[in-house]
């Protein structure tokens, strides 16, 4: 007896369902590879498991290129199915061109960042290398120019700040000098306004001694200073004391 036809329905057993998924997934990927090789077709296969795990297969061209091509042709089919005016027909003509340009630009960007280099030949790689070297030289030239401009601007700012610093230092010195002159002037003013009291010096005391002549007569007196020892002018004879008169009469 031959094997009967299996009814397609969800497998309830989780283990059996996982085993079946692995087997059918491998067979599906194998068939996709076979049709791409045998028929020289571009194939893209995307499978998500029940747990959300991604399984994909694509031919030599990348998955992105195949998806872009699919979107382009699906859009073209939609445009064919609709009856639109002439401007929309022109959009239908321009859209594939724009998509092709975008695809070329995206490919160039990937090449510049070092991705998707396997399809390139030796000549294309050398051309890409020359383009990158030229771009690096331009970038370095621009960077050096910006650095020089920045250094020049900083030097100008430094010069301005130095001038301001010199002016502030000069003003500070002038202020210090003015303050010192003012303090000196105030000190001199106070010295001139202050009054000094000088007490008069007392005259040295004088001692008057009578001078007697040889005959017992009184001739005069001499004033002797206590300190200088000088002779003073003889003055008038003062009255003689009584005891001296009695002694003279004897």
TrEMBL record:
InterPro entries: MADS-box/MEF2_TF, MEF2-like_N, TF_Kbox, TF_MADSbox, TF_MADSbox_sf. GO terms for molecular function: DNA binding. It holds the Pfam family K-box. SUPFAM superfamilies: SRF-like. The keyword Cell inner membrane does not apply. Residues 125-178 form a coiled coil. The keyword Zinc does not apply. Transmembrane segments: none annotated. It comes from the Eukaryota. Residues 212-250 are annotated as: Disordered. It is found in: Nucleus. Residues 88-178 form the K-box domain. Its main location: nucleus. Probable transcription factor. This is Uncharacterized protein.
């Amino acid at each position: 007896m031959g094997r009967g036809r299996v009814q397609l329905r969800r497998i309830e057993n989780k283990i059996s369902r996982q085993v079946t998924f692995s087997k059918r997934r491998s067979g599906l990927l194998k068939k996709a590879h076979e049709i791409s090789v045998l028929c020289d077709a571009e194939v893209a296969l995307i499978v998500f498991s029940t747990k959300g795990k991604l399984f994909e297969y694509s031919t030599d061209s990348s998955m992105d290129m195949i998806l872009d091509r699919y979107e382009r042709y699906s859009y073209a089919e939609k445009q064919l199915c609709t009856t639109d005016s002439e401007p929309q027909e022109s959009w239908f003509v321009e859209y594939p061109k724009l998509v092709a340009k975008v695809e070329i630009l995206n490919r160039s960007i990937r090449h510049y960042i070092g991705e998707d280099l396997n399809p390139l030949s030796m000549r294309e790689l050398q051309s890409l290398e020359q383009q990158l070297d030229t771009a690096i030289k331009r970038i370095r030239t621009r960077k050096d120019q910006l650095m020089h401009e920045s250094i020049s601007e900083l030097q100008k700012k430094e010069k301005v700040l130095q001038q301001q610093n010199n002016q502030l230092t000069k003003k500070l010195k002038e202020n210090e000098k003015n303050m010192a002159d003012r303090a000196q002037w105030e000190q001199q003013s106070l010295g001139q306004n202050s009054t000094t009291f000088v007490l008069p010096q007392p005259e040295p005391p004088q001692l008057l001694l009578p001078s007697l002549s040889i005959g017992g007569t009184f001739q005069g007196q001499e004033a002797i200073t206590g300190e200088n020892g000088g002779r003073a002018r003889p003055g008038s004879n003062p009255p003689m004391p009584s005891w001296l008169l009695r002694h003279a009469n004897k």
